[in-house]
Write a structure and sequence with these properties.
Pathway: Metabolic intermediate biosynthesis; chorismate biosynthesis; chorismate from D-erythrose 4-phosphate and phosphoenolpyruvate: step 2/7. This is 3-dehydroquinate synthase. The protein has two domains: about 170 residues, Rossmann fold (3-Layer(aba) Sandwich); about 180 residues, Up-down Bundle (Dehydroquinate synthase-like, alpha domain), CATH 1.20.1090.10. It is built from twelve helices and eleven strands. The protein has a four-stranded parallel β-sheet with strand order 4-3-5-6, with helices on both faces. Strands 1-2-9 form a three-stranded mixed β-sheet, with helices on one face. Strand 5, helix 3 and strand 6 form a beta-alpha-beta unit. The chain binds nicotinamide-adenine-dinucleotide, ligand LNCXM5UN and zinc ion (ZN). The ligand O=C(O)C(=O)C[C@@H](O)[C@H](O)[C@H](O)COP(=O)(O)O binds next to strand 8.
Length: about 375
Amino acid sequence: MAATDTVRILLPGNRDYEIRIGSGLMDERSSWQGLPKAGAAVVVSNETVAPLFAERLRSQLLSVYPRVDLVVLPDGEQHKDWASLNRICDHLLGEAMDRRTVLFALGGGVIGDMTGFAAAIYMRGVPFVQVPTTLLAQVDSSVGGKTAINHPLGKNMLGAFYQPERVIADLDTLDSLPDRELRAGLAEVIKYGPIADAGFLCWIEDNLDALLARDKAVLGYAVRRSCEIKAEVVGQDEREQGLRAILNFGHTIGHAIEAGLGYGAWLHGEAVACGMVLAADLSQRLGLMPAGFVARLRALIERADLPVQPPKLGAERYLQLMRVDKKAEAGEIRFVLIEELGRAGLHAVPDALIAETLAAHGAA
Ligand SMILES: NC(=O)c1ccc[n+]([C@@H]2O[C@H](COP(=O)([O-])OP(=O)(O)OC[C@H]3O[C@@H](n4cnc5c(N)ncnc54)[C@H](O)[C@@H]3O)[C@@H](O)[C@H]2O)c1
Ligand SMILES: O=C(O)C(=O)C[C@@H](O)[C@H](O)[C@H](O)COP(=O)(O)O
Ligand SMILES: [Zn+2]
């Protein structure tokens, strides 16, 4: 078994938690020791992931908690909604779970975001642990405490900042992940290069084939470096008052694509990949980056077999969707743009330039 990597996220008020990354962590007793004590644990998962891992997790947790329940939700981004959130809350209340109860999010980002939100609001807050089983969740969504559900009018519009007790990223769980989901996760890995670490972008370019071939050591490094970058950013700006917005590179258009097409039509990572190409293009149009950067990022995204051509929703529809983006202020749409390789910032972009860029990419 490979060694476990631990990334620690340090937060204001002397709060911190560990992100443990490695093979076989699910079946390791120490993964589940030292968590808050409770009379019960509740594992939240979905119809796809529960049959794969829930019994293994449950049997480990039974050595720590006297009772371990399982809540199984329908699978899919279209179910990241009130109905699913209510199902978690209904179970907790129906079983009279007290405020010490520990929730375990077993699955991808959809389960992680919803379980975290349920933990944030149940009895005004119970502890929760992230057990991410997709690449996307291991490199991004399980870390940093953004929890949410979607609204038909906008992505992740209802949620809370609420940090987990620990993240257990068992690389072996990725063995069963469909290729399309692996590629979607790579979009968020690629994101970290332009916004924070030019060297990591080169490393991804050099190792993309190994990542796609699921080389465990290479995947492990991608997860660790991604978590290190995210932990560093979130540690400085937990509630997105400034710096943290850089993690939204590619998301302004990405979220518009997801909501505009209906949740689940494109995967989150696919929408972000395409959104990064357009945001890179905007960075060039505003004179921040040379054309070579746009071509380089686009080539990498294409090599990862991720989409670079946005759906044709029309400029007006895109603008309407982006006006409810969380980064928008007073109707002004703001994008995370690349300022130099490894550095990004938030920029207000005029509607006309956005429309021009969308048209240039066949989206208008
Ligand atoms: N909170 C954050 O900071 C943050 C960051 C990035 C993304 N997100 C959110 O995360 C979500 C996307 O997450 P995702 O890409 O993990 O999608 P997902 O949770 O829908 O999982 C993708 C698919 O893979 C399946 N799956 C999960 N693990 C598996 C495994 N080991 N083997 C086989 N199948 C498996 C799932 O059932 C699902 O069908 C979006 O809702 C996005 O908004 C949140
Ligand atoms: O953690 C963050 O901050 C991010 O922006 C990470 C993103 O990859 C993620 O998709 C996040 O959920 C988007 O946040 P939102 O605030 O735009 O909903
Ligand atoms: Zn994202």
